[in-house]
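Retro notes (design track)

What went well: tokenization of the new backbones is finally stable.
What didn't: we kept losing track of which sequence belonged to which structure.
Fix going forward: every design gets posted as structure first, then sequence, in one message. First example under the new rule, 102 residues:
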């Protein structure tokens, strides 16, 4: 993770399953609540697999950021993850972007 001003970028990698999502959730929430964060970008370019736990991770961070007045963006999502975002309805509420700019 890297933060500049009020933008936090998290570069995710590997598989996002129940175990990994729980750890990511703890780390992201701690950073979001510890410092003024107005925008969080989750970069999925290094993610090889994601199950429904990843959808929960995204949705929970979206809700937390709404509570603190921030926004969430997803970037670098491959075709399978983009499909999951579409089918879950998250593509309608989370901004999808190209590459990270911190």
């Amino acid at each position: 993770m890297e933060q500049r001003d009020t933008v936090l970028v998290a570069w995710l990698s590997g598989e996002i399953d129940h175990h990994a999502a729980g750890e990511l959730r703890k780390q992201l929430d701690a950073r979001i609540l510890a410092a003024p964060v107005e925008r969080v970008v989750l970069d999925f370019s290094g993610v090889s697999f994601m199950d429904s736990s990843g959808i929960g991770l995204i949705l929970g961070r979206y809700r937390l950021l709404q509570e603190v007045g921030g926004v969430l963006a997803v970037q670098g999502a491959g075709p399978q993850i983009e499909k999951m975002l579409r089918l879950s309805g998250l593509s309608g509420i989370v901004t999808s972007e190209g590459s990270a700019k911190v």
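Added context from the reviewer: Residues 18-34 form the longest helix (17 residues).
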